[in-house]
Design a protein that fits this description.
The chain is an all-alpha fold. It has 24 helices and two strands. A two-stranded antiparallel sheet has the order 1-2.
């Protein structure tokens, strides 16, 4: 009997797709088995079916049919990947690090590693249907064989009630075994449990700051960066019952040196300003350390990168704790502006307007200032007013002064009050001048209010207060995106 090899090979492709799908989802052994076994079966059946179809019209269209079938298989494969995240629902904060315990390689059946792997896979649903009860079964065996990660995971199961009845006492028992034998994840988890407390009545973890600090300290001294960062915060704000700025600085610096960007940025600010949680307990001001840690944060990718770059630029621009260096300031401003920071954009615009570190270029200055002003940066809005005054476009200048003043810029409030007071470039209006003087006072500068208030009658002052209320309503509407024009 003749055999249609083309049909057989096409059919075998389906087995290959199914096997690859299984292997990628975490079950390599079964994936290979599917390819070998089903590949042979599909090859044989496909070849025989192809022989029968050879003399029919269907044979002439076989390539089209097989192409459609293979496309459908690929679509199903993609669908499987797309739905996988929904089959494995998001893990809790404590169990999110489960897969760091994944055991690689082939393990002997009934070994500690074998049961740990099985337990972890059932817990997270990797390559198998998620099944907490089966996870607990294998994790218990692994823990009895001496697995520290298994004790950690059993602690999580009992804490969350996954696969077992929720029992905080048993959760603590298993977690303490792992923690006392050196598992840093167990140590930090226990510390958080004792720090926060949980449960009520007969089933609870009583808040215990001393135990929280004990376990977090062990993890921190063993190099756990998150523990170092947590301890720094606890000691800085007295969150675990003990406020100690020296210990706070010690652990924050450890975390910062280990690459924790938030601590680098916070230390930079704290050493620069001499900050502390209480006025009697502050960081010792140290500009050299401030610049060192802020530079580390600025050079590292993360959430604080552009903020650190902008802060370095501001220190260098104003000479705050360092020598004034406009060129170096512009370098940091440009890095932050490229990341979308409106303050950095504003100061590039100011440098281009004032000629600080570069030749003046008002057109380019306007580009940067406009972009920052569109993000409601008040200082950028004020400098756009300056640019328009230079070009004698006074209505546009007034528009930008108003925007800046309504976003808290005291200088713009004073400028508006003075212009309405004197009638310079606008129609003289003492009521309007009074309203903007009141806004300037609210923004931190009472000089304009003192200058005009004595010149007004009680009726005019009352009218000025009404005008002030109207301006504030306009600001509220503008902030809400409602244009009254």
């Amino acid at each position: 009997m003749k055999f249609n090899i083309t049909w057989g090979l096409n059919a075998a492709v389906l087995a290959v797709f199914l096997g690859i799908n299984k292997a990628i989802l975490g079950d390599l052994d079964n994936g290979i088995g599917i390819i070998l076994v089903f590949g042979c079966i599909f090859f044989t059946v496909g070849g025989l079916l192809g022989l029968k179809a050879r003399s029919t019209k269907f044979h002439r269209k076989s390539k089209t049919y097989w192409s459609i079938l293979i496309c459908l298989t690929v679509i199903l494969l993609i669908g499987r990947f797309a739905t996988q995240p929904f089959q494995q629902h998001q893990e809790t904060s404590d169990s999110i690090s489960v897969l760091q315990y994944e055991v690689l390689g082939t393990d002997l059946e009934n070994s500690e590693a074998y049961h740990l792997r099985k337990g972890l896979r059932f817990y997270v649903g990797k390559g198998v249907q998620r099944d907490y009860e089966n996870a607990v079964y294998h994790l218990k065996i692994a823990s009895e064989l001496g697995s520290l990660p298994a004790h950690y995971m059993l602690g999580i199961c009992y804490y969350e009630g996954n696969g077992v009845e929720q029992d905080y006492s048993k959760a603590i028992d298993h977690m303490e075994i792992a923690a006392e034998l050196g598992d840093s994840l167990a140590q930090t988890t226990l510390a958080r449990w004792y720090f926060n407390g949980a449960g009520k009545f007969g089933n609870r973890i009583k808040k215990d700051d001393k135990k929280a600090i004990y376990y977090m300290t062990i993890a921190a001294e063993n190099g756990d960066v998150s523990a170092q960062s947590n301890l720094g915060s606890w000691y800085r704000y007295g969150q675990a019952g003990e406020l100690d700025i020296e210990k706070a600085a010690y652990y924050m610096e450890k975390a910062a040196e280990n690459g924790e960007q938030q601590e680098q940025y916070t230390l930079g600010q704290s050493f620069h300003d001499g900050r502390g949680y209480l006025s009697s307990d502050r960081f010792e001001q140290d500009y050299e350390k401030a610049f060192y840690y802020m530079t580390k944060a600025a050079k590292q990718e993360g959430d604080y990168t552009k903020h650190a770059q902008t802060q370095l630029g501001l220190w260098l621009y104003t000479g705050d704790g360092v020598n004034v260096d406009y060129g170096e300031a512009l370098k940091w401003f440009k890095l932050a502006a490229d990341r979308g920071d409106p303050v950095a954009m504003t100061y590039i615009g100011i440098c281009l307007y004032e000629g600080h570190g570069v030749f003046p270029n008002h057109d380019l200055a306007k580009k940067y200032l406009q972009e920052a002003a569109d993000q409601q940066n008040a200082e950028a809005q004020r400098y756009l007013a300056y640019l328009n005054e230079d070009n004698q476009n006074y209505p546009e200048a007034i528009k930008w002064y108003r925007k800046a003043a309504m976003h808290g810029d005291a200088v713009s409030s004073i400028m508006l009050s003075e212009q309405y007071h004197t009638g310079n470039h606008v129609e003289k209006d003492l009521i309007e001048a009074y309203a903007w003087a009141r806004i300037a006072s609210e923004n931190g500068n009472a000089s304009a209010l003192e200058a005009i208030q004595s010149k007004l009658t009680a009726t005019q002052i009352a009218e000025g207060k009404k005008r002030l209320s109207r301006i504030k309503v306009e600001k509220t509407l503008e902030d809400s995106g409602i244009n009254m024009n």
